[in-house]
Amino acid sequence: MTYCDTISKVAPVPVDQFVQYSTSRSGLRFHRTLGSFSDSPHPGGVHFTLNLTAKYQRIWGFGGAFTDAAGINIESLSLQAKENLMRSYFSTDGIEFNFGRVPVAGSDFSTHTYTYDDVRGDTNFTQYNLTDEDFFYKIPLIKEAQELSERGLHLVACAWTAPPWMKTNGDYSGFGFLKSEYYQAWADYLVKFLDEYKKQGLEFWGISTGNEPINGIIPVNRFNSMGWTPWSQRQWIKDNFGPTLKKSHYTVKLLALEDQRFMLPWWINVLMSDKQVEEYIDGIAVHWYWDSLFPPSLLDRTHNNFPDKFILATEACVGDKPWEFDKVKLGSWSRGEWYMEDILQVLYLDIVAHILT
């Protein structure tokens, strides 16, 4: 077998045994072997010591993102290929993804910049509408994934930008921030997204404060982005987004940061310095870019500062750097190893779930 489309479901094994799955360049593909623990080490080889008394965070699961790009590519497949792909991701025959990140309108995985209400001054959102991307790509695939999943699907909503008319630069991207006079309108816009998806039969487990706020201070960005400072975001959560979510009939979890590891723990420290804001925030979302330059201990420090807040890895992709000319490298073992190393590292340091883009 030269592919990894399916994997047999892991059945319980006796307490003194373990199951190992191996994939290798030499030809193994999800190859299952059964091993036994021993009280005394054997000579040679690699030794693992298992401490059954030490307990850490519970792992909630793994997932991917329902972006426009994902939908366009998946829907371009033949019906049989599409079914096989979706089963390999979400069914018990596959890797059983149980988390899904959903962009609120356009993202850097879109063919163009857009929001759900680009009509200037429409704070009552009479012109607010989901788009073809939602109806043709996101919503149908999410529903298919839900049908395939036995574990359920935890959906996390994340917006890349507010409509340009709400921003200081009047644009979808570039150096721009949310105007303070639209703080409440932006909170209402996000809750309306939850309303619109509920009309389509979909409800969300979580929603974040917004994708990569640091991108809003980078003038050269050409995809949807909006800047925040931790102080302005703290004020918005306290006065607008937090109360608006609480008043809604949704019980979604609020995720803060949604940006890189190097912003920890200082960004979260600023947000949590207001106890009211701390009460609104349920967890912290982090991305993997530039992790090689910044120590994983930043995750540990953040967890130690706020042990009652879970940490979720919500975005990771390869090929995003300007010097990575091959955006897609089919069959690349090195890229697979990058993902594997990162997942192992962050699971060791308090992450409860990992979502790939």
TrEMBL record:
GO terms for biological process: glucosylceramide catabolic process. Keywords: Glycosidase, Hydrolase, Lipid metabolism, Signal, Sphingolipid metabolism. PANTHER family: GLUCOSYLCERAMIDASE, LYSOSOMAL ACID GLUCOSYLCERAMIDASE. It comes from Cryptotermes secundus. Residues 59-349 form the Glycosyl hydrolase family 30 TIM-barrel domain. It catalyses: a beta-D-glucosyl-(1<->1')-N-acylsphing-4-enine + H2O = an N-acylsphing-4-enine + D-glucose. Belongs to the glycosyl hydrolase 30 family. The keyword Isomerase does not apply. The keyword Hydrolase applies. It comes from the Eukaryota. Pfam families: Glyco_hydro_30 (PF02055). One of its GO terms (cellular component) is membrane. GO terms for molecular function: glucosylceramidase activity. Its EC number is 3.2.1.45. This is Glucosylceramidase.
